[in-house]
Amino acid sequence: MPGSCTAVAHPNIALVKYWGKRDLTANLPSTSSVSVALAGFHTRTRVTWGSDVDEVRLDGRTVVGSQAERVLRFLDRIRPGRPPCRVVSASDFPVAAGLASSSSAFAALALAATRAAGLDLDPARISALARQGSGSACRSVHGGFVLWRRGEADDGSDSHAVPLLGADAWDVRIVAVVVDAGPKAVGSTEGMERSRATSPCYPAFVEENERLATLAARYVEARDLAGLVEVMEQSTLLMQATMTTAVPPIRFVRAASLGVIEAVSALREQGVTCGWTMDAGPNVKILCRASDADRVAGTLRPLAAGVHVLAPGGPAFVESEPASAG
Ligand code: PMV
After folding, report:
1. Count of CB atoms situated within 10 Å of the CB of 302
2. Gap between the Cα atoms of 287 and 295, Å rounded
3. What CA–CA distance (Å, rounded) separates 240 from 195?
């Protein structure tokens, strides 16, 4: 039955990191992770089952090769032997913001594709599906603060995100500081695999990060910002330890990133409760109270190419109900 549907999702950033897979095929993580969705930035994706040919359009242009394959293979999972499909997706945030666009992309795709196929799956199942497209995407299905449980099942059915605290339940901000707008030198899957296979720090990361995820979930639920930023920095540093000791090493941190981190420490010494995190790139994100966001952004603006102040975002949602293509 042909049908189409448009869904919208926000990107998220990890407060406690997902870095490493225990199963590459099912895309299962070695550890749990915790994130917050980002309001103001969206990916909007329309999926039509039953077009003339497969077509994938991303940000206004038709893509082919591995980029299109990744999307089409994802649709094969939802309905093996599917008809040709058209996928049109656009993000309204700059890739240069250093935010994982794949998190919102695969969350919006999972929701739009299942609804367009006539399936009304619960958020846990949509999250487990989105995870197979991009790990971090399972967290963008929910809004606000989210825990992605690593799960134990071999088929990944229990490896999905669960909501911790709604977007409006805690008045914090994420200040995204762009120090370098260039593309990633090493993709996340390659970086994770190299870290897992070659870094002597990787087992320590896995052991400690699981504990940090549990702790962070508690701090989120208690709205304890000082506790949360301490855990966030610890998880970030442990992830970076696995990268920098991988063979060959992966170095995302630049001098400008360190300048931002120094400025965050100085703000903290002045009594501002805030902390920093980084992902697979040189840009830095700061978590702080909403009432301190202008001060934090103003302090960091001279050090960066761009600064975005973002509130916690809501869950992925359907923009239009499936329409029969006749
Ligand atoms: O979802 P992926 O495969 O793009 O991996 C994301 C990895 C990090 O952004 C570095 C950490 C995270 O938990 O989002």
Report:
1. 9
2. 12
3. 10
- Ligand 1 centroid–CA 192 distance in Å is 9
Q: 208-246, pLDDT tens digit by residue?
A: 999 999 999 999 999 999 999 999 999 999 999 999 999
Q: How many CA atoms lie within 13 A of 285 on its CB side?
A: 30
**Ligand 1 pocket, residue 18 CB under 6 Å:** yes
Helix (H, G, I), strand (E, B) or coil at 285: strand
The rounded Cα 211 to chain-centroid distance in angstroms is: 20
Dihedral Cα 12, 15, 17, 18, nearest 10 deg: -30
pLDDT mean over 269-279: 97
Instruction: Answer for the pair 174, 285: CB distance below 8 angstroms, yes or no.
Output: yes
Residues 6+ apart with CB under 8 A from 313: 10, 12, 36, 37, 38, 39, 40, 41, 143, 144, 167
Helix (H) or strand (E) holding 6: strand 3-9
Residues 70-109 have pLDDT tens digits of 999 999 999 999 999 999 999 998 765 567 678 999 999 9
| pLDDT over 80 (residue 262) | yes
Atom of ligand 1 nearest to the CA of 17: 13
Q: Decide whether any atom of ligand 1 lies within 6 Å of the 150 Cβ.
A: no
Q: What is the CA(51)–ligand 1 centre distance, in A?
A: 32
**Rounded to the nearest 5°, which phi and psi values hold at 87?**
-125, 125
CA dihedral 127→36→275→91, nearest 10 degrees, is 100
Pocket test residue of 13, 16, 18, 104 for ligand 1, highest count of atoms within 8 A of CB: 18
Where b means 16+ CB within 10 Å and e means fewer, 17-42 reads bbbbbbeeebbbbbbbbbbbbbbebb
Given a contact cutoff of 8 angstroms between Cβ atoms, the answer to whether 171 and 309 are in contact is no
